[in-house]
Amino acid sequence: MENLEKERYLRQMKVAELGEEGQEKLKQSTFLLIGAGGLGSPAAQLLAASGAGRLIIADFDTVETNNLSRQFLHTDARIGMNKAESAAVALKDVNPFTRVTPFTGKVTDETLAPLVAEADVVVDCCDNSKTRHVVNRVCHRLGKPLVTAGAIRGCGQISVFDFRESGTPCYACAFPEDEENDLKASSLGVLTALTGIMGALEAAEAVKIAAGIGSPLKGKVMLVDILNNDYRIFALRSNPACRVCRGEG
Ligand SMILES: [Zn+2]
C-alpha cells in the first residue's frame, strides 16, 4: 500500500483483528457483487470505502426513478444508464484506489461462472430467488465463499456459505428452488433503512471472509426484523436431498 492509502485506512487498521495485514488482504481481494440495487448500493459503497482492491459489479437493469430512494449509488442524472456502469461512476468517487469492473449482461449459469472464478468472495445483492439460486449453484460448483441476503418490508435475512469447506449446507438446502414462494420486494415493498442495514451486513461479512477475521455467519441465517427490533440467528442443516449439493442441479 502507498502511504496515501495507509492514511486513508488508518482508523480501520487500528482494529486489532484487521491491522495492516488484513487491510492488505482487502487490497488483494476481488469481490463480485450481483446486483447494484437496494442491497448492492450500500454493500458496494462500504466495500470500496473499506479498501477492496477490486469490485466486479453485475447488473443488467437500468436506473429508474423509483430506484433512487434506496439505490443511492445512482442519481437522477444517470436515469436510463445501466446500473453496473452507474455504480462504477459512483464508486470512483468513493475510493479511487478500488478498481471497478461492470458486467452489464444477464446473470445465468454460463455468464456468471467466469466472474465467480475471478472472485475471492461473492456477495449476492439480487432481488429475486431465481438469480439467488443461480449464484448459489455456481459458487457451490466453483468452491467460492458466498454472502447472500434479502430484504422485504421490514424483515431481512443474511447467510454465508463458504464452499471452500466441505460439508457446508447451501442456499438451496434451506430454501429449495421448486418450493420457494418468490416474495419480491417490488410487490411487497421494503424499508430503505432495512436495505441499508442488510447491505452493510453483507459488506461486513465479505470483509471478514476476505481478511480472515472474526466469525462469519457460515452455515447460519440471521433474521432481522427492524420494525420490532428482533434479531435472531439459526444454524442451517445440509439437506441430503438437495440437488445442488448432490451435484445434480
Ligand atoms: Zn444444498
Question: Which features does this protein show?
Answer:
alpha/beta; eight-stranded mixed β-sheet; single chain; Rossmann fold; globular; binds zinc ion; 19% strand; 10 helices; 249 residues
SSE inventory with pairings:
Layout lengths: L2 H6 L1 H4 L5 H9 L2 E5 L5 H11 L3 E5 L24 H12 L4 E5 L5 H10 L2 E4 L4 H14 L2 E8 L2 E8 L8 H4 L10 H4 L3 H20 L8 E6 L4 E6 L14
Parallel strand pairs: 1-2, 1-4, 2-3, 4-5
Antiparallel strand pairs: 5-6, 6-7, 7-8
Helix pairs in contact: 4-10, 6-7
Explain this structure to me?
The mean pLDDT is 95. Helix 4 packs parallel to helix 10 (192-211) and helix 6 (109-118) packs across helix 7. Helix content is 38%, strand content 19%. It has 10 helices and 8 strands. The longest helix has 20 residues, at 192-211. A hairpin with a 4-residue loop joins strand 7 (220-225) and strand 8 (230-235). The protein has helices at 3-8, 10-13, 19-27, 40-50, 83-94, 109-118, 129-142, 171-174, 185-188, 192-211, and strands at residues 30-34, 54-58, 99-103, 121-124, 145-152, 155-162, 220-225, 230-235. An 8-stranded mixed β-sheet has the order 3-2-1-4-5-6-7-8, with helices on both faces. The protein has one domain (3-235): 3-Layer(aba) Sandwich (Rossmann fold). It is an alpha/beta fold. The structure holds zinc ion. Zinc ion (ZN) binds at residues 169-170, 172-173, 239, 242, 244-245.
